[in-house]
Amino acid sequence: MQTPPNAPQTNRLIHETSPYLLQHASNPVAWYPWGPEALQAALAQNRPILLSIGYSACHWCHVMERESFENEATAALMNQHFICIKVDREERPDLDEIYMQATVTLNRGQGGWPMTVFLTPEQEPFFAGTYFPPEDRWGRPGFPRLLTKIADAWATDTTGLRSQARQLTDQLTQALKSVSPVSVSTAVLDEAVTQFQQDFDAQHGGFGRAPKFPPSAGLSLLLRCYRRTGDRPTLQMVTRTLDAMAAGGIYDHIGGGFARYSTDDRWLAPHFEKMLYDNALLATTYLEAYQVTQRASYRHVTTEVLDYILREMTDPAGGFYSATDADSEGVEGKFFVWTPAEISAVLQQAEDTRRVCAYYDITDAGNWEHHSIPNRLRSLEAVTTALNLTSEELHATIARVRPLLYRARQHRVAPALDDKIITAWNGMMISAMAEAGRVLGLSRYLDGARQAADFLLRVHRTAEGTLLRTSRKGRAHLDGVLEDYAYLAEGLITLYEACGQERYLTAALHLGETILGAFQDHDQGGFFTTAEGHEALIVRTREGADGATPSGNAVAVSALARLSFHYDRQDLRAAAIGGIRAYGRQIARYPRAFAKSLAVVDFLADGPIELALVGVPTDPGLEALQGAVRSVFLPHRVIATSAGAGPPSSHPLLAGKGVVGGKAALYLCRNFSCQSPLTDPEAVTAALLSATQRLDQGIPRAEPCA
C-alpha cells in the first residue's frame, strides 16, 4: 500500500498505545519508544541517547514539542547526533524514577517534566534538565545550542562523559544501600502532626507556599491522628484545607473534579489538567472527613468528584481513563474559564446571570488572564448580602442553572483526553468508589468499582497471574510495577469489604503473595519498584517516601497488613512491618513525607476491629446493620460478609457464625475473639463507638509497633 501524497510522515511511535507517545508520532524527530531496538541502535552506532520523558497532560511538554520537536532544523540535529527515545512517565514509572533522581542530583534538587536526559549507549546519564526553550532564554540555553554542545563533547571527550556517567550511576546505586531498618513507634505520629503544624497555612489552608498540591495522604493521616487524640487543631488543619480547596478554582465547580495543583496560595488558579489519581485520593479524603465531621459539604464534593469520573472518565469496558489536558485549542484553561457575557448568553435571564456571576466570582475584569475561573472563595454570607438574598434562594438558583452551564461548556473544544488505563491509578479509584458505595449506600459507585476491577482482572492480568501496567482500546502491555500490584490489591480488599464478593479478596491475596515473592528486599525489608524478572535497568530502585501519590512501598505494606488480619497470616504482617522498619530512620527525620506509611503504623498499633456480617441480601435487617457500620469512621477495620445462597465462605472470621433467631447479625471481634452477636442497629452504633474509644485510650504512646 503506497503512502498518499502529502500524507504526514510518522516515526516509530505510531505503533504505541500511549496517547502521549502518539502525539509525537508525526514529529520529524526519529523517535524510538524505549526498548531493545533503540538501545541496541545506540550501542551499535556508539551514539548518546537523548531521553525525553513527559506525559499527555503536561503543559510544558506540549510547549517544547511545538517549539523544538516539530521544528525541522532542531529535529535534524537530534536525528544526526542522538538516538532519540520518547517515554510516557505514566507508562514507565521505573524509568521515570531513575532518571528523575539523576536530574535532581545534577540540578541541585530541581526536576520536573518534560525531563530531558542525555545517556551513554549503556543507559547511564551524564547531563539532564527539564524544559529547554528554542533559543537562550530565562537563564536556560536554547535547545539547538545545547544539542550542538553535547554532540561536540561526545565527539571530543567520550571517555570523560562516560566517566561522569559512571560516577553518577554509582551515586544513585549507593543511595539505595543507605537503608538501615529501625523500629517505628506511635510517638512519630505526634511528630508528624507537629511538622504539619509548622508548615500549615492557617489563612488559606494547605501546607507551604505556592505552588500548592492537594495533600491527600497527609490529610487522611491527620484525620487518623485526630481520631487518636481528639486534638481540635489537628482536625482544623484538615477542614480548613478541604474547605479552601473545594472553594477554590482548583475545583471544577461546573463539572466536578480537581485539577492537579494550584499556582497560587489561595487555591484559585490551577494548572488545569485533571489526573485520575488526584481525584481518587481526594474523593477518599473528603469521604473520610464527612464521616468524621458529618458535614454535608464533604459528602457533596465526594459525590460530585465520583460522578464526574463515572460520566467523563470511564471506558465502556469498565476501566478509568488517566487524565485530561490543561490546554484546549492551544490555550491553557480555555475550556474552564468564563466571562459575564458568556454566562448571560447561556442563561438569558439578567437576574440568574447576576446571581451566578456573584456566586462564582465571574467579573468583567476577570481573576485570571482577563477571564474568570469559577470559585467560591468569597464567603457565602458576603455574596448573599450583596445580592439581598437568602442562602436558600441562591442555592436554589445555582442548582437550577448549573446543568445549563455544564451543557453549554460541553459544546466547547474539550481538552485532550488521555484514555489509557493504568492499573495502579485504577486501583486507587476502585478503592474510592467502593468505599463511597459502602459509606454512602450508593450502588452506582459499587457498580463502577466492580466493573473496573473485573476489567483489570480480565484484561490486565496474564494467564500466569502477573499484572500488566497499562492498556488502551483493549490492548494491554508493559510489566506491572510495585504500585500496580499494591494499589490494585488495596482496591480489591476495599471492594470486598464493601460488597462481600469473596473473589475480590482472593484476587487481592494472590497479588499480595506476588509482592512478597517478586518485589521484597529480603535483606533490608521493604519492596523494590520492579519485580525480579523485570527488564534490567541501571539501578533497581525502591522508594519509601510519598510523592504525588503514596509510595508503592507504603501501599504494599498497607495491603499486606490488611490481608494479614483478614486471613490471620503472620507472614504477611511481618512483611508489612519490615516494609515500614526499612525506612525507620527517614520516617523519624521527616515523618510528614511518609504519611501513608504512618497510617499503617497507626493501623498496626491499634489492630483492627473485626466485623462479621451475616444475613441474606434481601433482608432489610442486614442493610440496617450495614448502615449502622457505615455511620462510624473506622479506618482500622476488617469487614467480612456472608450474605448469599452460594457456597459457604472460606473467610476465617465467618467460620461458625450464622443468623440469630432468623435475623441478620453483626459479630464484633478483636483477634478473632468475638462478643455476643448484635441484631439491633442502634446497639451496633453504640458498640462501635465504645470500641473505638477504648482503643484510643489504651494505646501506649511510644511502643514500637513496626
Description:
By secondary structure, this protein is of the alpha+beta class. Among the domains are: 12-176, Glutaredoxin (3-Layer(aba) Sandwich); 191-418, no CATH class; 607-706, Glutaredoxin. The chain contains 26 helices and 19 strands. α13 packs across α14 (350-360). The chain starts with 18 loop residues before the first helix and ends in a 9-residue tail after the last helix. 51% of the residues are buried. Residues 1-7 and 696-703 have low confidence and may be disordered.
Terminal CA distance: 64 Å
Helix content range of the residues, please? 40-55%
Total beta-strand segments: 19
Major β-sheet, in short? 5 strands, mixed
**Strand content bin:** 5-15%
Shape: globular
Q: Could you name the ranges where pLDDT drops below 50 across 5 or more consecutive residues? A: 1-7, 696-703
Helix count, DSSP H or I runs of 4 or more residues: 26
User: What's the Cα radius of gyration?
Assistant: 26 Å
**SS class:** alpha+beta
User: For the largest beta sheet, what order do the strands appear in spatially?
Assistant: 1-3-2-4-5
Please tell me the overall pLDDT: 94
Features:
single chain; 706 residues; alpha+beta; Glutaredoxin; 5-stranded mixed sheet; 19 strands; 10% strand; globular
Topology (SSEs and partners):
Elements: H1 19-23, E1 32-33, H2 36-45, E2 49-54, H3 59-69, H4 72-81, E3 83-88, H5 93-106, E4 115-119, E5 125-129, H6 143-156, H7 158-176, H8 187-199, H9 216-229, H10 232-247, E6 261-262, E7 270-271, E8 274-275, H11 276-293, H12 296-312, E9 323-324, E10 327-328, E11 331-332, H13 340-347, H14 350-360, H15 380-387, H16 391-409, E12 417-418, E13 421-422, H17 423-440, H18 443-459, E14 468-472, E15 475-479, H19 482-499, H20 502-518, H21 552-567, H22 570-581, H23 584-589, H24 595-606, E16 609-614, H25 620-630, E17 637-642, E18 665-670, E19 673-674, H26 681-697
Parallel strand pairs: 1-3, 2-3, 16-17
Antiparallel strand pairs: 2-4, 4-5, 6-7, 8-9, 9-12, 10-11, 13-14, 14-15, 16-18, 18-19
Helix pairs in contact: 4-6, 9-10, 9-11, 9-24, 11-12, 11-17, 12-17, 13-14, 14-15, 14-16, 17-18, 17-19, 18-19, 19-20, 19-21, 20-21, 21-22, 21-24, 25-26
